[in-house]
Specification:
two-stranded antiparallel sheet, globular, alpha+beta
Length: 70
């Protein structure tokens, strides 16, 4: 959930698309040690719903690990 330019962690209730990952995987993504596509392929990231919706949300962040998801 993004509110006032801030990512707000929620339990995902009511979301039409979600991305689920562990804290360790998220750390690898935000540091550029891994990329979203690779983590999806290996099961480190699970996307439910519209992958394009998730990609649009990730586009608002400056994630080195964002490459390869569009």
């Amino acid at each position: 959930h993004i509110r006032n330019c801030v990512a707000v962690v929620t339990d995902g209730r009511g979301a039409t698309s979600t991305m689920t990952t562990s804290l360790d995987t998220w750390a690898r993504l935000i540091t550029g040690a891994s990329d979203v596509k690779g983590e999806v392929d290996s099961g480190g990231v699970v996307i439910n719903g519209d992958v394009n919706d998730v990609a649009r949300v990730l586009d608002v962040f400056d994630l080195p690990g964002r490459n390869g998801t569009s």
